[in-house]
Every structure is written in structure tokens, then in C-alpha cells.
């Protein structure tokens, strides 16, 4: 939540920065959202709705953590003034790899787009990236590659197998797109800004569709190819060279090249002016990280044995586009304490602070006092964190959890050993085989665990897993984790007058509301509300964020798991009709039967008759009334169907200004473009899908499931799970 608050602050700042110099400029709306907030893999996204309508283009950096130019360029581009069209900017697509300053952590994320994988955090990020891309009519990927691409062999550093200083496309033409023409005309302008002859950018066509292309196998798993082949939108990568030493030069030219490409895609921006030395300073800026209120400044830090470590990351890492901060304890490499709680149950040497993967300080840790003694005689007690709350589980005990929960096994109370605790069915570090899962974030998603370790639970829907103590020399012990499916019963909304409106959740149904402004204030469900993410049309809703329901504009409300982005179903919000008004006639606001097969009359909006403008929600009675109505309508498959719904299946997740993708049909683009980042009062995504489908190629029908479709395509044979962390240094 702290992050969201800071977000609001930075949004205001942004608004001020953008609006002041622009003076009379029409609302250029900027908003940010952090997906997977509170996990080890937060994904910040900036949406900018331009001053004039135009297509929506997505820009992404940081998919591979050892390419800082890409994420710094994207960060700067996220602060652009957008004159025409809209931007979706993902500055740091793969935060854990940036912290590690490595190309990849589990797998190369840019090889995870040939199908819908569900194994690693990278796959969850890829889900959101596909979701964002489906709203875009072109895609620009920012990279940093080795050497200098040249179609002729010139030298070991300058030849056809190098990647730097190129604009990469997967095909010269595809369907009705003439990518080579687009890039070539942009290159004239881009290279006009490059004084050095040997640093000019070149067009690099990897011919990914052609079986004889040496790049085909790898590139068919990449994001640009996914965008081109599956969404039929222009996609290109701007690749600067790792062999250019000056970061500032690279960022400046990558920002410029991207703004020129954007123009050729119908989006006009004015990036902020940043000179090379400022960029270098931005990269090296220090940040004040505190642990338990004490600054990490290189001085030794006293840690109470068994105490909790609380990290305040300081000024960075608080918004959707800025630099990211990590604090690593020396015994748990890669586990960022900023997002993960920890108790000091075992001694460790030091803490390292990193900003965007660059080490800024190392702090020696001094344990002040003795570790708490082991419990006399009793069975071992395990210490875990479930969704950020500390819980203790005895040997033989059961920890109850829900799909999507975040679990961290922190250690054994009072242990004198170097513990090894193994969550059977999950591999924290798939490339090492030591069975150690202690200290790592485990997102409880049985679909991503190894099936043969699933044990029978208390009922057929609940999956049980065993956590065993495999510590050499220590007394064996274990406990169980029961993971039950997430069941959503209802949503609690509040309208503009403060009245509470309870909506029964039934995926596939419709819910009728009086026209007006609402926000979701709670979800009635068997798990914490902050592990659920409501998405209205294409827009993820923050807790309490307002949205409008207007007559004639049905909108799709999707519920997703906040930690995995998996779908929990969707409902259509419609208005209650000319005669129905929530204030006047509570009964009338109940939902009408829908035409959809699943709809029936099970779905209704219930308005609390006694609600007063300032009335505090009475959680219990609300829950009861919803529960009752669930029971009445024989609470059968509704919830289950919802839980099983495919995440990508929802028409609402469909592109906005897709049809305008054609860069050379500018007038087209003008006519059709729709903002993605909706300003609060012009929300109409759900009206979209219909209009949309007409304009789209058959490949991207509103009812298509991108993932299923993708899997069905005879693309590269996806090697399920190559645990090999690193791949050749390119794109
Ligand atoms: Zn790259």
C-alpha cells in the first residue's frame, strides 16, 4: 500500500510537470500500476493517454537484467509528453534479473512467448506482458546487444552474428505490414542523429519465419515474434551495443530512435531532455535504504537474533517506472528483503544493497546476543510467512492456504543447525539440486508444481504438499501445506453516495447497476483481498479506485489472482435500465437474466437497503447476506467455473486501437484510435470488443484465446523447462 500512496504522490508530481509547460494542453493522462505488488517480481507499467487521439504503442525495457540502456531509456520515455496516440511503457519487465544484473534468473524471459508457460515467475510476467500487448497496435522492444551488427563480415566484433546498433525485425513483410519499409524510412532520420559513421543503426531482419534462418529456432520464442505472428502488429527491437562504453550516449540515442519509430507508428512524443551526464548520474544515484529504522550505510548493523528484519527501500522503488532497490542477505542470494519479510533465525554475514542491479553498499551484520534457545523437548516448530504474516507450524501440522497465496518458509524456531527445508514439488532454484526452499518466495499455484508430489488433501479440490526438514544431523520433521482453490462469492462496491452494493460473483453473468460512479472496496472470498486483482476492461483497478457505469456501455469486469494473473472469471457490468435506480428501488436493481447460458438469474446486485452515506460497511452482515443468497441459488458450479476460467479467454482483455496498426495508413489511425489509460471519466473498454473484432484479422478474434491459439501453432518446439539459466548473448 505504501507504494500506492507514493504512486499517488508521483502522479501528482507528474501531472504538475506535464501540465505546467504545456499550458493549454488537453488532458494528457498518465497513470501507473504495479502488477504483482508485494512479490519478488513486481511489474510497473505506465499508461499515457496522449493529447490527441491516435494508436496505442507499447514500449518495453528490462526483459534481460544485464541491459541497463533498455530500462533507463524506457524510464525516460515513460516521462514523455505524448502529443498524439497513447503509450504503454514497461520500463523494467524482469526486475529480479535486473537485481541480479544477469540476463536471466530461471529462464530467459524473452524465450517464453511461444506458449503459455506456467512454471516460473518469468511466466507470470509474460502473462501480463501479453495482456498489455493485446491492447497495443505496435511494439518496440529495447535491448542492448554485443558488438555491431553488419550484414557483411568485417571483424570479430562487426559481423552478421552481432546484434548491437541495429533495429531488428522478424520479417521484411508480414500479412499487410511492410516492416522493412517502416524501419528503413525511420532509419534515415535515426541515423541523421548519429554523427559517428561506425555507430549508425542498421536494419537486421532475422527472417524468423524462414526455416533456413539461423535465428528461427530461438527467435520464434521471442516477444517481437509473438507480437508479429500472433497479433499481426509491427514489432521491432532497438538494439544498442554493449561495446559502447558511454551509457549516456546509448540511452540518448535509444530514446531518440524509439521516438522516431513511434512517429512512424502514429504516436508523437516529446521525450524529456536529458543529457548524457545526467543519465550517468541517474544510474549512479544513491538511495537511502533502512533496516529496522537504521540506514544501511556501510556501518556494521546490530541485528537482534530471532528478530524480524523490516526494510524501507527509501526513495527508489516506490513507483511504476523508477529505479528498483534490492537488499540481499549473504545467505540467501537473490531473495530481495525489500519485498519479502524475514526473521533472523540463522546467522548471516552481511547485507548488500543494490540499485538497478548495481551494488551501492555492503553492511556487516552483527548478531547482538544469543539465538533464542530451542523449545525444550517438544516437536520442532517451523516459522513461515503467509502473505506477509508470520505463522508457526508444528511438526506434523497443516498450514492452510489458498491458491495464489505467497508462502515463505523462514526456518525452524530455536534451531542450531544450518537448516534445509524442502517444499516437495517446488524447486526454488531449478538449476541447483539441493532441495533448499527455505527463504524463497513460493507462490502457491499447484499448476506450477511437480504433479507427482501432490498429496490427497482433506477434500478433492484441495492440494496437499509436504515440507520436509532435510537438515543433515537434525531430527527429521515435516509439515503439510493445504492449498484450496480460490472461491469468490461476491464483490462489495460502494457508489458515489456511499451506499454499499453487494454483487454476487458468478463468472459469465451480468450484473445490473444504476448508472453512476463506483469503486470495489472488498471481495468476499476465502483468502486475502489484496491477492485478488479486479480488471475493468483493460484497466487494473486499485483498491478503492473509482469507475463509472453508464447506460449503453457494458463493461467486462475480470477477476484475477494478483500473484499469478490467472483468471477467476469475468462478469459484464450493465446499467439497471431506464426505470431502475439503486436509490429508489432496491429490488429493481437486481440483475436481469442474461442471454448467456451460464447466466440464469443467479447473478444479482444487492443494495443494502439500510445503507447511509457515511455508514461503515458491516462486514459480517454483508457477508452473511451474500452467503445466504449463494446458498439459496444452490451454490453450485458458479464459483468453480469461475475458478477454472482461462485467464486469456476474456474478450475484455482485447486490444483497443488495434486496427490502426498499419503504420502507413495514418488517416486510419487517426480515425480509430482509443486511449488505453483511461482518464477516470471516459471508461468504455467493454463497448470495445464488438467494434474491435470487425477490424481485426481472423487471427485475433475477440473470442480467441491467444494462448491456446499460440500453443496450437506449429511454432518452435517449446522445450518444457530448460533450467539452463543463461543463453548466448544476444537479443
Ligand atoms: Zn536483450
Give the CA-CA distance, first to last residue: 35 Å
Biggest pleated sheet: 9 strands, mixed
The 3D shape can be described as globular
- Helix coverage percent: 10-25%
The total beta strand count reads 41
Task: Name the beta content range.
Answer: 25-35%
Task: Indicate the CATH topology of the largest domain.
Answer: Aminopeptidase
Count of domains: 4
Radius of gyration: 26 Å
Low-confidence stretches: 1-25, 578-731
Structural class: alpha+beta
Which distinct ligands sit in these coordinates?
zinc ion
Q: What is the residue-mean pLDDT, rounded to a whole number?
A: 79
Number of distinct helices? 14
CATH architecture of the largest domain: 3-Layer(aba) Sandwich
CATH class label of the largest domain = Alpha Beta
Secondary structure elements and pairings:
Layout (H helix, E strand, L loop, with lengths): L1 H21 L6 E7 L7 E7 L2 E9 L7 H10 L3 E10 L4 H6 L20 H13 L4 E8 L2 E2 L8 E2 L6 E4 L3 E2 L2 E2 H14 L9 E4 L10 H4 L3 H9 L3 E7 L5 H18 L3 E3 L5 H9 L5 E2 L2 E2 L5 E3 L4 E2 L1 E2 L12 E5 L12 E2 L6 E6 L2 E10 L13 E6 L2 E6 L3 E5 L3 E7 L8 E3 L17 E3 L11 E2 L6 E7 L8 E7 L3 E8 L4 E5 L5 E4 L2 E10 L6 E5 L2 E2 L5 E4 L5 E7 L5 E9 L29 E3 L11 H14 L4 H8 L21 H7 L15 H8 L10 H7 L19
Parallel strand pairs: 3-4, 3-5, 5-12, 6-7, 8-11, 16-22, 25-31, 34-40
Antiparallel strand pairs: 1-2, 2-4, 4-13, 8-12, 9-10, 14-15, 14-18, 17-20, 19-21, 21-22, 23-24, 23-26, 26-28, 27-30, 29-30, 30-31, 32-33, 32-35, 33-41, 35-38, 36-37, 36-39, 39-40
Helix pairs in contact: 2-8, 5-8, 8-9
Zinc ion (ZN) binds next to loops.
